[in-house]
Amino acid sequence: MRESQEAGRRALYGTGAIGHNRVAGLAVLTAVAVLLTGCGGSAAEGDKKAPEPEGVVTEAEAAKIVDRYVSVNNRANKTNDGKLLSTVEGGALLEQSQAGYKADADLSKKEQAASAEPFSYVDRTYLIPRKGKATWFAVKTRTKDKEGTSKYPQLIVFDRDKGKGKAKGEWKNVASVSLVDDEKKTVPLAKDKDGFVRVPADGSGSAGSSAAGVAELSTSLADLYTIRGPLSSSEFADTKAARSVHEIPKEVGKDLGERATAQFKEGESEHEKAYTFRTRDKGTYAVFNTAVDVDQQVIADNLEMVPGPNLHPFVGKKPSKGFSLHWLHQSSAVLPAHGKPQLLDYEVELTGVRRLHHASGAT
Questions:
Q1: Residue 272 to residue 5: CA distance in whole angstroms
Q2: Mapping DSSP to helix (H, G, I), strand (E, B) and coil, where does residue 281 land?
């Protein structure tokens, strides 16, 4: 993952036909507020004391994990070394980062050098679940680079690698999202009496909530691309992020013009795990991933679509009847105790493209 001083990482979505690049991401970052309460010890019978409560990791261990990630990430960014990055990054975030490395091939040498500038994480607050409640931990932090320190912090999540071989069991950064609502208020994450971040047992909203469960968030986000009616007909409340996603099909349609079409649908992704936190107001804060496929095609066999510059690293420069784009999103949302889920932030990266050989509607 590359970090910058802008409030969030915005990714380009690709279009064919007129080769126009547009930004399709809402970037909002802010601090996370957590509830800190006192820690109290308890004694067992006799002189024996109850064991000290343990987290998934200690703060000292977490600090070393984050330091190693930053060091290796900066080394990988210098040469766009996706294999090296994979030793400290995983999940959807790694897929996005490696796609970003691939897309960098279309940048100028000056732009490539600028994107490879080193960064560090400062002002860290470690959000560690109690041992046995989760396999992961998170960090609220801000980015510092040659431009200074970012105004708003972000939330990064580290989880253990579930694969095979040498990497199995290694800690890797799997998510990077924001923690702010439309009014730029922080999401108040809750901690228990021992200072551990509280984690829902099942990842869903609180009892009696009308909010969709965390497992439904990914499909609900994909539906924002496909619903023809107003935003109010979606599973999400009306937020800036939800409105932004809902408007993308209209923007893509304008880019393509009248001689091409774009069809959106939920795609397939292996990154299905969501990371959830309890909030102080009895809701759930969730980090989740969504894949969306976009088929862009000309409407007649005598037409061809010219790939835009951001598609060149994936399919070259030759025209085609159309292209199928694979967009991978990493998003954050709040499921309140009552009401619809609120999409807070999403970051989308073009991670794959394939050619389509028939015009829309052709057989």
A1: 29
A2: coil
Residue 63's identity, in one-letter code, is: A
Backbone angles phi, psi at 292, to 5 degrees: -130, 130
Beta-sheet strands, E only, within 91-136? 120-127
Q: Tokens in use for 314?
A: 């994936």
HSE of 135 in the Cβ direction (CA atoms, 13 Å)?
12
Length of the chain: 363
Tell me the two tokens of residue 150: 């970012």
Which residues contact residue 212 at a Cβ distance below 8 angstroms, ignoring those fewer than 6 apart? 205, 220, 235, 335, 340, 341
pLDDT computed for residue 5 by the predictor: 44
Cα pseudo-dihedral 6, 119, 36, 58, rounded to 10: 150
Give per-residue pLDDT as tens, 18-49: 222 223 332 322 222 222 223 334 444 455 67
Q: Taking the C-alpha atoms of 253, 254, 258 and 261 in order, what is their torsion angle to the nearest 10 degrees?
A: -20
Residues of the chain below pLDDT 50: 5-45, 203-212
pTM: 0.84
Centre a 10 Å sphere on the Cβ of residue 212 and count the other Cβ atoms it contains. 18
Of 148, 143, 141, 110, give the one whose Cα is nearest residue 127.
141
Q: Token match 């990064």: residue?
A: 156
Q: What is the residue whose two structure tokens read 């999403």?
A: 346
CA-closest candidate to residue 95, choices 308, 327, 331: 327
Q: What is the pLDDT of residues 297-307, one digit of tens each?
A: 999 999 999 99
Among residues 275, 263, 180, 162, which one has the least CA distance to residue 218? 275
